[in-house]
Specification:
Elements lengths: L6 E3 L6 E4 L19 E4 L6 E5 L7 E6 L5 E5 L4 E5 L5 E6 L14 E6 L5 E5 L21 E5 L5 E5 L12 E6 L5 E5 L4 E5 L5 E5 L5 E6 L4 E6 L13 E6 L7 E3 L16 E4 L5 E4 L12 E4 L4
Antiparallel strand pairs: 1-2, 2-3, 3-4, 5-6, 6-7, 7-8, 9-10, 10-11, 11-12, 13-14, 14-15, 15-16, 17-18, 18-19, 19-20, 21-22, 22-23
Length: about 300
């Protein structure tokens, strides 16, 4: 492993899909030069690699989504595009243009994540850099930077977008992760604003959650339990909060379970946790521990026992 930040569950066999950043550290990139397969499927019990693909397709993989048909979607943050693969690695669809950032309907600017709705509609969370803006040290928004959700048809035709960099409801400071609950509501991890915002599929704001920390990744199970992994809370950005995985029902802003972080000398109180989280059919929780664990040469997964 180099660094990883994403993990998802195969809907057909329950095994684990993830990506590696080709030996790179958190944001250093590496897949453009280090020609190894960055997309991998693992046996969820043994860790055996079952398949891999995607060589040469990405600069810095950032988001992963496995749809109901078993197709694997990977977002390339610094490459500003995304690719949909079949489960055997055939390229089925591309969105955005690799190496060409932009803020129009045909380009992305540091996309973070992707998810598909039951009808095949595609939602992309675009704009990684927003969380460093609108702060005391950087109170302005960089020209061309984005903080938006983009919606496309199943065939990749642009439909609409909403949001911009900001702190108000409906805006984002890095929409870092996407999930949908059983009702088809779209949950957006608005990491820079320390909240989860909830929308319908037309972009209408519904509600927010504030109890989950500074969220990097989210996963919603079939019974609508929300797992949110907090990799960035610290004494300055979110005082007195620990990193880790917080668990609660989608309909409440209330934490009912917590998986603590692992010890890290660099974070003596908060500990270190990953950016990606997924839960298998047995309730086992998988955390992708790459970027913020300071183990860049050996990013890892941790499998936690069934959450009670």
């Amino acid at each position: 492993w180099g660094s990883t930040a994403g993990v998802d569950i195969d809907p057909h066999d329950g095994n684990i899909w993830a990506y590696d950043r080709c030996g790179a550290s958190a944001l250093g990139g590496g897949c453009a030069e280090n020609l190894v397969d960055p997309v991998l499927k693992f046996d969820r019990n043994t860790g055996e690699v079952l398949t891999s693909f995607g060589v040469g397709e990405f600069d810095l993989p950032h988001g992963i989504h496995v749809d109901s048909g078993g197709n694997v979607w990977i977002v390339d943050m610094t490459g500003h595009h995304l690719v949909k693969f079949s489960s055997t690695g055939d390229v089925l669809l591309r969105l955005g243009t690799r190496g060409e950032p932009g803020n129009d309907s045909e380009h992305f600017n540091q996309p973070n994540d992707v998810i598909t709705a039951p009808d095949g509609s595609i939602f992309v969370a675009d704009g990684h850099g927003g969380q460093s803006m609108l702060t005391p040290n950087n109170p302005t928004v960089t020209e061309g930077a984005t903080g938006r959700i983009m919606k496309f048809s199943a065939e990749g035709t642009f439909i609409k977008e909403w949001g911009q960099i900001g702190t108000e409801i409906g805006n984002f400071r890095t929409p870092h992760a996407l999930e949908m609950d059983s009702e088809g509501r779209l949950f957006v991890a608005d990491r820079g604003n320390h909240r989860i915002q909830i929308f319908d599929q037309d972009g209408n704001y519904l509600d927010s959650r504030y109890s989950y920390g500074r969220i990097s990744g989210i996963f919603i199970t079939g019974d609508d339990m929300l797992y949110a992994i907090d990799s960035e809370s610290s004494g300055t950005s979110h005082p007195n909060w620990m990193n880790g995985v917080r668990i609660g029902h989608v309909d409440e802003d209330r934490i009912t379970g917590f998986i603590p972080p692992f010890d890290a000398n660099t974070r003596p109180y908060q500990g270190a946790a990953g950016e990606g989280v997924a839960v298998d059919a047995d309730g086992n929780v998988f955390a992708a521990e790459g970027p913020n664990s300071l183990r860049f040469a050996g990013g890892a997964f941790t499998k936690y026992a069934v959450a009670q």
